[in-house]
Amino acid sequence: MIVECDGCHARYRYDESRFGGKAAKKLRCSRCRAIFEVVNTRAFEAQPALKPRPAPDETAIRRPGDRARVTPRPERPPATLKLPTEYKLSLAVIAGPDAGRIFPIEKPRVLIGREAVDVVLEDPEISRQHAAIEVAGDRVTVVDLGSANGTLIGESPVTEAPLENQGEFTIGGSTIMLIMTPQ
Question: Which of 29, 39, 114, 123 is 20 to 30 Å apart from 173, CA to CA?
Fold first, then answer.
């Protein structure tokens, strides 16, 4: 199918199988960086009566230069987050613009994104503050921070999911692997 950006009217070919059964998907224009919504017309054919979607709020669609008004998920109490003593943790970017880079995890909550975060990636498809890694002893969790393009484990979008050693997650066009090394 061909989709068109609402902002600059650039046209793109989009594979309908990427909807993953969803009625709509948000995309970012590679030309003007605007985020626009694409409707899966086949979802309407398969389901005769879909509930109407609520009107998007200010955080759902942002244009270049807009200030993000995302309300981040409340942080876990600091007492529950703690680095393990028996492992050293790091994040390895295995695909995307920063492929090959390794970031050590030196605190129990690490923010990942493009700006004002602990792990800065040069991926234009990720949000300024896209996801967080939270460590509570031997339990590591990836948490989406309300990003525009979401956080995926495999092909499934997640808001929060546990990570094992060598577990992978995808944000934007970057795939990141958790590495746990014995100390």
Answer: 39
CA–CA gap between residue 60 and residue 155 (Å, rounded): 22
User: Are the CB atoms for 81 and 135 separated by under 8 Å?
Assistant: yes
Ordered mean pLDDT values, 10 residues apiece, the chain (183 residues): 78 76 77 77 51 44 45 55 93 94 96 95 94 93 93 92 95 95 90
**CA nearest neighbour of 57 among 45, 66, 48, 46:** 66
Whole-angstrom distance, CA of residue 151 vs CA of residue 131: 7
Q: Is-contact 26 39, C-beta < 8 A?
A: no
- CB-CB contact of 179 with 166 (8 Å): yes
The answer to whether the CB of 23 falls within 8 A of the CB of 44 is yes
The answer to whether 94 touches 170, Cβ cutoff 8 Å, is: no
CB 61 within 8 A of CB 36: yes
| Ranges assigned E (strand) in the chain | 2-4, 11-13, 24-28, 35-39, 87-95, 102-105, 109-113, 119-120, 131-136, 139-144, 151-153, 156-158, 160-163, 168-171, 174-182
Neighbouring-strand partners of residue 141 = 134, 162
* Partners of 175 in beta bridges: 95, 170
What pLDDT does residue 21 have?
73
Rounded Cα distance, 107 and 166, in Å: 19
